[in-house]
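Handoff note, outgoing to incoming analyst
You'll be picking up this chain. Sequence as last confirmed:
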Amino acid sequence: MGDIDDALERAGRETFTREPPKTLKGRINFLMGKLKTTRAVAAELGITQRSVERYRTGERKTPPKAITDRIDTAVRARWQPRVRDRRRKEAATRTGITVETRARFGYTAPIGTTDDGRMRRLTVHLPPAYADRLFEAQQLPAMKNPEMTRPSGLSMTLATRA
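Most recent structure output, in case you need it:
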């Protein structure tokens, strides 16, 4: 469920009420607050403990792009978990979710005819019962058959009533 998990994660990020810290020092300090030790932060980011200390004190200000991306991912994964949980609960009980994907539609016909298959964008609103089932499936352990084909270009939005 890689694409679906990613889409749900992006939808969760859209529900943030505040932006995560922007500075490197602020992000590292945020991770320190969540993970408690420089060793745990270093293990999470795949860097040395001393590098974490340097980023935290401001000795190093610009990490390589790969490390910057890992820091950003780690911060966003831990940012405002209660807001995300509240939004998921609301989608699973009241509002549902909107799923948008691309699919190829067409008939078997010679190439160049109007019946030739083409990519179409589908947008479907899932009622709360199905949204709840989707969230439950996401919480289950990894699928037994990881070689299953997955849809590409999937995007989801947690619907809200205005």
